[in-house]
Structures are given as C-alpha cells and as structure tokens.
Amino acid sequence: MASILVHITHGPEHPTRAALGFLVAKAAVDEGHSVTLFLAGDAVQLLRDGVLDNLNGLGTGPLRQSYDALVASGARFYLSGMSARARGLTEQDLVNKPAEFAMPNKLVQLSLEHDRMFTY
Questions:
Q1: pLDDT tens for each residue of 77-105
Q2: What dihedral do alpha carbons 60, 83, 80, 68 form, nearest 10°?
C-alpha cells in the first residue's frame, strides 16, 4: 500500500474544504494506506476540541468522525508551528492527540518521503 500525505491549509472559515481533506485522508486509511496530515495556516485550528466537535462540512460529515477514524488508524498529524503560534495554539491544545508542531522544512521532508500528496 502507499503512503499518503494530506496537506490542509483551510480551517473553520471553509468548513467543507477543511473537512474534505480529513475525509479523503480517512478514505485512504480505509483502503489500507498509511496517512500523515500536515495542517498549516488556518487549518491548525481544526485540532482544537471545539472545532473538532462542531465542524461539519457540506456533504463531508462531522470532522470529529473523520478525525477519530484517522487517530484509530495510526495517522500522524503535524501542525505548522508558525501558523499555530500566530493563532494562539499551544502544546496544551495537542494533549492526548497524535500531533506535534513542525516547521516548513518538515513539510518538505514529508512530501519527499510519501508516495502521493493531496492538498486542501
């Protein structure tokens, strides 16, 4: 199976596009692929509990449902450290989540390590 990187830059301001990135990542794990997500820009806010619990994209279902399936599959999440800092996210926001802050060079590294990359 393939390794897939999903890069999401849209957040709560574009709920359908943001949730679609998670839904495609979920579809990939459902097919047996390994998935990593890199959230940048407004997308870093998607891992806030309030957003996870309340965001629903049009035709994509609840964000929490896709997120929980991704976590259960062992998917890994990286959040742009600069984007997170600019939006007030801290380590506390990542407690009990398979996520860590990363710099742009990590995105470049991940893009070279994965077989395919999707951007939302």
A1: 999 999 999 999 999 999 999 999 999 99
A2: -30
pTM, two decimals, is 0.96
| CATH number of the domain encompassing residue 44 | 3.40.1260.10
> HSE of 5 in the Cβ direction (CA atoms, 13 Å)?
17
Domain interval for residue 111 = 3-119
Q: Which residues of 5-38 are buried (b: 16+ CB within 10 A; e: fewer)?
A: bbbbbbbbeebebbbbbbbbbbebbeeebbbbbb
The number of domains in the chain is: 1
